[in-house]
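Deliverable D4.2, example record:
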Amino acid sequence: MAATTVLALVASGLVAGMAVADDDTVPSKADVRDARTAVRAQVDDVAAVRARLVVANQRLQQSAVAAAQAAEAFNGARWKADQARDAATEAQAGVATAQADVERQRQAYSDAVVSSYELAPELTALAGVLDSDGIGTVLERTDTMRNATDAIDGNYDEFRASAVVAQVAQDRADRALDEATQAEQDALDARQRAQRAADAAAADAQAIAREKGALIARLADLEHISVDLAQRRQSGLEARAARAAAAAAEQAEQEQQAPPTPTTAPTPAEQPEQPTEQPTDEPTQPPTEQPTEAPAPPPAATPAPKSGAQAAIAFARAQIGEPYQWGAAGPNQWDCSGLTAGAWGAGGTYLPHYSVAQYEQSTPISASQLQPGDLVFWGSSGDPGSIYHVALYVGGGRIIQAPRAGRPVEEVSMYSWTAPNFYARP
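Output generated by the structure prediction step:
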């Protein structure tokens, strides 16, 4: 075995500087030791390169998540600014109504005072006694005078109440305007943060791509294969890992949703047949061709979408291939919530251009209840306020989404990235 190992290494060029005098030369113990050391070093180098590739992929994903969070924070700030501006407009309309009422009450009070002065000679207490022809007339004129005074006082009270209401409305309008101004400034700040995050993500993607290219070239050198083959192998490993993660996530969801079933020990007659093939530790040979993404297994039954959902799906499919642009909602560029808002707008349902608000204004459902046209969301925690990405479910475990900068609108498995953790029906 030692001789075979050394000869193989010599033939492949993996052990440098080992002289072989002739075919009958027997390797020494030192030769065998050096050969084994070289093999171990090469295996360690390959493992280290693969580990660095995994870290690079994780960095790329973290960068994409950070950019998505910043972009949706901008959408949220812009949505809140719009709401604040609408509230300010409504409050100002309330001020106009209150001021108009003040003017009406002011005029009514003025008219009552003028009428009182015009009737003053007849309604004074002295005139009521001197000009009367009896106690009945005195009482009648006294009542008229009292009613006139009450009317003036009543008009004055209504005027004062209207003035107070108008002042309250004005104060509310001033606060609403201040809040709208602050919300617009917050939206501007969020836009700048989103732009910085997008720029950083793009720079990270380029740097990571260069790093991965260098690592794959090193891997090709260590494995004595072409760079193109190493690239295809690496892509195959990454696709396999994504499919495994997707299958694990889907199975975990199914197990969580399935009702518990009692388990009983099988009888001797029911003992499962033992496998005849023993597992091996040999790694599976990676594919030599560029792998294609395998879709997640479809649900047992996918109900047909309703008309609004059909229109939403048709709209989203028509946008496949169009570029991602944060903050965009069409007609030829999209971000995640802009695409779902546009799709459901085509389906006759308004959705805000903000993933958190889309969830809040829809009906939450579970993964097992998904139907074509529903929305799936990704959040950084169990709080819906942490949602940073949304996509349109189209059935069969697949979604249409505007993923991130550098990747256009696409239809993929809903587990192609990470498992979603929120679901809702518009």
